[in-house]
Amino acid sequence: MSKKTSAPPYDKNNIPHYIFQNLDQMQAVWVNANIIYNVTGDVSADEMKKIIGSMNGGT
């Protein structure tokens, strides 16, 4: 049995983004305007935050 942990959501532009590791990949999921976004990659959590920032107009 594996231990499950949760991190607080990363808030960007008043939108909660959930960043977590799924298998060997970092994954980010969020909802905006009834659209579900899901980004996965072989990156660190900090790099994922930069990707999220670049997708939200760089703000």
How would you describe the overall organization of this protein?
With 59 residues, this protein is of the alpha+beta class. The protein is built from 1 helix and 4 strands, in the order ββββα. It has one helix at 45-55; strands at 10-12, 15-22, 25-32, 35-41. It has a 4-stranded antiparallel sheet with strand order 1-2-3-4, covered by helices on one side. Strand 1 and strand 2 (15-22) form a beta hairpin. The mean pLDDT is 87.
List keywords for this structure.
59 residues; alpha+beta; four-stranded antiparallel beta sheet; 1 helix; 19% helix; globular
Largest sheet: 4 strands, antiparallel
What's the total helix number? Answer: 1
Helical percentage: 10-25%
Low-confidence stretches: none
Can you list the strand order of the major beta sheet?
Answer: 1-2-3-4
SSE order? EEEEH
- Give a count of the beta strands, DSSP E runs of length 2 or more: 4
Q: Mean of the pLDDT scores?
A: 87
What is the C-alpha radius of gyration, as a whole number of Å? Answer: 12 Å
Classify the beta-strand content into a percent band.
35-45%
Q: In whole angstroms, how far apart are the ends?
A: 40 Å
- Overall shape: globular
Can you describe this structure in just a few lines?
The chain has 59 residues and is of the alpha+beta class. The protein has one helix spanning 45-55; strands at 10-12, 15-22, 25-32, 35-41. The model has no long low-confidence stretch (mean pLDDT 87).
